[in-house]
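User: Can you predict the 3D structure of Secretion/DNA translocation related TadE-like protein? Sequence below.
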Amino acid sequence: MTGPLNRATAASGGGADSGSGTVWVLALCLVLWCCAAAVLVVTSVRADRHQAAAAADLAALAAAHRVDGGPQGVCSTARDTAEANGARLAECTRRGRTVTVETRMPTPVWPGEVRARSRAGPSRLE
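Assistant: Sure. Here are the predicted structure tokens for Secretion/DNA translocation related TadE-like protein:
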């Protein structure tokens, strides 16, 4: 028998590959969804990294402003400033009149933390 088995098969023009378009559309939707999710994760982590960098910059500037107050005053000022900006002070080093800080911040969409370092002090021309 070489002809169609019934009218439904003949009308759809199908055979073994009937409905394969649905599978391809679903696969394409899955690929697009995964790409969109990856873009959202990368964008969120980059935004958190910029926020950690801003917190580190502000903490270093605030600490350098208080450099004459002793080492504990410098690092406590850096810690308070970092925490006020949503980050955690991971490291605070004072070398002369220059202060170096490192802040860390958790990322809500990715395991782990983002880190940022900043240094502040008098310019080299002074």
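The chain has a mean pLDDT of 86. The helical segments are 7-12, 20-65, 71-84.
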